Amino acid sequence: MVKPVSWKFNSDPPLILLRFSRRFRSSPGTGDRFLARLLKLDDATYEAQIIRPLENKPKTITGIFSYGNRIQSVTRGKNNYYNVAPRNTLNAKLGELVVAKLLPFQKHEVPKAEVLKLLGKPNKTSTFSQIAIHLHDIPYKFSNEVLEQAAACQLATCQNRTD
Question: What DSSP character marks residue 63?
Fold first, then answer.
């Protein structure tokens, strides 16, 4: 399900179902923006077909803190290095995995960032999990209510199941 970026009417936006497309390498995630063609299914429901993705610049990056107060992104891309002002390092150590917020910068300068969180040395067994959690905004902290509900759930059985 998707929703329009802006909705100028006094009512709730209609239900918009996203049609799966094999044209794009990955499915859109939370916060992704794209241009879509809408097909009206009924009075309150539409189907969206992606025409093209729109630029989805990340608000945060995950990377390795390196020499010269720079962060080297763990993802491939055009902007691989980000400058960090000394006051914005959170005392990160060389080689430490960090999550940083992107800061405004001029067109022809190295992008700037501010360290938000220290994740530790990247040689731990949990490194890849930490990177995936922060790159894809996977929730990992839950309220007590949610944890109680999860504890009350029963395990699924394998009986009468075909894989």
Answer: E
Structural domain that includes position 101: 60-135
C-alpha separations of 153 from 3, 5, 139, 148, 159 in Å: 32, 36, 19, 9, 17
Sheet of strand 34-42: strand arrangement: 15-18, 45-53, 34-42
Please report whether residue 20 resides in a domain: yes
According to the model, what pLDDT value does residue 79 have? 63
Q: Give the whole-angstrom CA distance, residue 159 versus residue 148.
A: 26
Do 69 and 128 fall within a single domain?
A: yes
In a shared domain, residues 99 and 45: no
Does residue 158 lie in a domain region? no
Give the chain's residues under pLDDT 70.
24-27, 56-58, 77-79
Which CATH number belongs to the domain containing residue 89 in this structure? Answer: 2.40.50
Mean confidence (pLDDT) of the chain:
84
* pTM for this predicted structure: 0.55
Q: What total of structural domains would you count in the chain? A: 2
User: How far, in Å, CA of 144 to CA of 122, rounded?
Assistant: 30
Cβ atoms 63, 73 nearer than 8 A = yes
Tokens of 128: 């890849």
